[in-house]
Amino acid sequence: LSYNTAIEAERAGSGARGFQVIAGRIRQLAQLTSSATADIDRHLENVRERTRSAVGAITGVAEIIHQVRAVSEEITEALSHQVQTTEDVTRRVEVVAKESARVGHVVADLAAASRKAADRAVGTRETAAQLDAESDQLRSLIEKFRVQ
Question: How many Å apart are CA 78 and CA 6, to the nearest integer?
Fold first, then answer.
């Protein structure tokens, strides 16, 4: 448009001074439009670059989220296994505790029986000692009655 206006202003000659002013203004507007268009192109390219960068960052975040989810699932599985193992150990400890209590009762019963047996053994030893003493007395009485 600016170029066409300049040509028409030349044809009109010196009598079209106002036309030349308008042509100059149109030329300035065309330059401003061209400059503004270049600025807009730069801004759009900047926006595109930032958008690409944001998409890259979002993709990176999505990958990290995926990795975190995978690790979280592994942790959940490990914790589940740990809970099962702990429950199994707890059940086994309860069984051992019950058996230990039973063994403790048996040991206590054996200890009581051993004390009784020891007491009886002491009584038997005392009785044996008395019998030995009485036997000695009887021997000595028998010796007195023996004819010589």
Answer: 82
